[in-house]
Amino acid sequence: MIRLWNTKREARSKFYWNYFKVSEQIKHYEEWVSRNTPLLPIRFRAPNMECEDEESKKLRVERGIQNFITLIKSTKINSEKHKTAYMTLDNFIFETLSDIPIDNVKEYLRQMWKDECLQNEDQSHKIWKYTE
Q1: Could you write out the DSSP letters of every residue in 4-52?
Q2: Nearest-CA neighbor of 89 among 2, 36, 14, 23?
Q3: Distance (Å, rounded) from C-alpha 118 to C-alpha 128?
Q4: Cβ-Cβ contacts under 8 Å for 127 (sequence gap 6 or more)
């Protein structure tokens, strides 16, 4: 049981961190793209071409914005996959604990899992705040 607990806690920690990190990145990306003049990462910016007319340049800029929006959407999908994964682990642990016949022990272990998860989530938030 200890090995299972530690393995699932480590996996949940990674899934939660990936979910949280990607969710925070998405917030920044959506804010960048929603500006009057969108702020795009370098790989989505249209390079300046001296002989290009304004209409062609405008089309290339719009394509860059659409590509960035597509990246944001696919990143959201990945974020939801991580969220589903860590929630599945929570459910697995709670189902496993429900097999314990002694109610006091079962409730104690449930609370212990919740506390460890909250501690891990707080740690993830602190790491993100530090990296911002």
Answers
A1: HHHHHHHHHHHHHHHHHHHHHHHHHHHHHHTSSS----GGGSPPP-TT-
A2: 14
A3: 15
A4: 17
Crossing angle of the two packed helices 103-131 and 54-98, in degrees rounded to 10: 160
pLDDT of residue 31: 94
**pLDDT tens across 59-98, in order?**
988 999 999 999 999 999 999 999 999 999 999 999 998 8
pTM of the model: 0.84
Q: Is 113 exposed, middle or buried (0-12, 13-18, 19+ CB in 10 A)?
A: buried
Q: How many CB atoms lie within 10 A of CB 29?
A: 19
Phi, psi of 94 (to 5 degrees): -65, -40
